[in-house]
## 1
Amino acid sequence: MRLVWILALMISFLGGVEVKIASYNVENLFDMNNDGTEYEEYIPNGDWGWNEEMYRTKLRNTANVIKGIGADIIGLQEIESEAALKDLKAELNRQGLYYQYYAFAKTRNSAVNTALLSRYPIQSALKHPVNYSGKYRDILEAKISVEGKILRVFVNHWKSKSGPESERITCAKRLLLRLKELPENEPFVLVGDFNSHYEEYKTFLKSRKHNDTDGITGINHILHTIDDDENPITYSSLTKDNEHLYNLWYELDEEKRWSHQYKGKGEGLDNIIISPALADGKGIEYVRRSFGRFDAPYLFNKGKIYRWQQSRKYPKHHLGEGYSDHLPIFALFRM
């Protein structure tokens, strides 16, 4: 009996490869090249003092957070360029965290873009323009081989809440169009800054600025994270059909379901959403209750997220302190 137990334990270990997937909006990682699309504050050697020293500090601070997360695959938002992504990879390497593979989606005329770092081979990477107006950031798709199994990761950065919900619905419809093209039962994970609360269909109803869609939302209605009666999709109901998706925020206690602050109130704008194939008991599976936000104490200052610091007093300038206005989120997946 003891031998049987040992063999079962060995098989469990051998078949239990875990993969941590994360998402992090790093808040404006701009390089030192002047491309003409920079925000005013990030013009190289401009009036705000965005210089080589500030750039290197931002790289070190960002890499320090990513190292703390320790993800195998991480989707990133607000990376200006492939050059900035490569510099971040180099800084991570100096800090002892090596990502051999990467993907980057450059949107025409966009100041910031989406990217992905991976320890597992990226078989292919595609960028999906939401439309060709240049108004929306492209969606990045990476086809990743995890121990011989295929997992697709989509990195999103939807339109901000400076605009109405119809703009985020445009992003959601483009993403859904691509998801419907995938082979049936192929597992995928949606990550990124959706600029949408996990229960946006409840939170935006009274906002005249946002609700220009008669109560319809991109993240909930278009991506089907709620059912026809507007009940949230649960893990147990995920496999009933292939239409619905599961938002992992529901794994946390309600008071912790936020990754961004607006006027002192927490918002769950960053999301990790999984497909039914990650809960069907075959191949790659989501590890239940593994979802979390990376909220190390150093990411807070005086009870607020310790974002990258800028002085608005004349002369306006970067202070060389802080991290991002978003907290990273992560989840585990097991073979």
Note: Residues 19-334 form a domain with the Deoxyribonuclease I; Chain A fold (CATH 3.60.10.10).
## 2
Amino acid sequence: MNEYSILVVDDDVDLCEILKFNLERQGYKVQVAHSAIDAMKVMTNFYNLIIIDVMMPGMSGFDFAQKLKEDGIWAKMPIIFLTAKDGENDVLKGFEIGADDYIAKPFSIKEVMARVKAVLARSHGPHTDPLLSLNGLVIDSRGKTVMIDGFDAELTKTEYELLLFLLQHRGRVFSREELLNHVWPNNVVVTLRTVDVNITRLRKKMGRFASYILTKTGYGYSFEL
């Protein structure tokens, strides 16, 4: 079982279900959205890959992908376009936006599974860029460091894991219990107050980004832009 998470965006409900079923059989975690607008509502979660249809009502897949590529958090997320628009100009436009692959409809499920596997291998292999960058905030997943405007934030292991988790799920509010379960090891005995203490310490080291870590009274904490 792998840990890759995939978002499928297509206005064809039946096709989404077919892709979801087959991707989950391969061990992937899959979420679907039936429009770019719906997809933007769930982009608070972290995905290893997004599969996007081009021809959708409202915002097209090209426009949606362009918005993602302009966002500091999602700029390097792998994208596969899955579409009936397979003309040369369409394909070139897809790759100019930053697509990692372009699959024309109709297609075979085996082909899609193979393409997905290949893109994930290229994008999340040992030579991928370990940096997550957002307007002066840079997280190095290999070195486990956080830089703010070029200066080391000097976070502890727990502070680093806490920041990374909140950032990867930006916009979502987590209770202290949820943060304890996701960030702290199971064999460590800690109290809910431990979360509050670490959030306070983290904010003190985050400089101008401290205000991005919000307290939702009665609910918990979130990272919001």
Note: Residues 109-123 form the longest helix (15 residues).
## 3
Amino acid sequence: MPAAHTDERAMIEATQLLLIRHGETEWNAAARIQGHTDIALNSVGLAQAEALAAALADTRIDAVYSSDLLRARQTAAPLLRGRGLTMLLDRGLRERAFGSFEGSSFAELALRHADACERWRRRDPAFAAPGGGERLDAFYARVTTAALRIAAAHPGGCVALVSHGGALDCLHRCATGQQLDAPRTWVLRNAAINRVLVAEGRMTLIGWDDGAHLDAATDEASA
């Protein structure tokens, strides 16, 4: 009987995180590296944010956290409607900083910085882009620490966490035990819904790339 009681308590205190990458920007569409550069959503991204809110309209959400960068805040804003919630900004959810690489495409950089881009492509944990870039291992620690801290603040709740592609890559690895340098085999679509559970400081994947709402949003923005 005591064991059953313990299991029930753990289930009650597990926190569900809805992990959401921001909607599309013009730099996404042009395959340019954004990092900490503060880029707004384009028309497709704005439509994706509205479609995301509609898809989650019947889902209980106890808190909405966002990276403080504009593209994430614009994606999170429609989720607040009718919920009586205030957006909670957290710099720990920011994208990885890419220093002087920001604004360029990988193809452009590969011509000018072949060795650095090869380390980046191999997912070298110690690689940081020149000009103030962030090491991959430091980025991973920052993002996972932020997500676990947020989950711990809402035991038993459901929390929307709006962040960035690189950040969600880190959280997928955390939830599945993937190494930092392992090749990515999962997608990171703008404004798709990804779900993890956090209990006792451990993250578990329960659903990834729920994007049924996105096709209509893209069609609407292109019409």
Note: The radius of gyration is 18 Å.
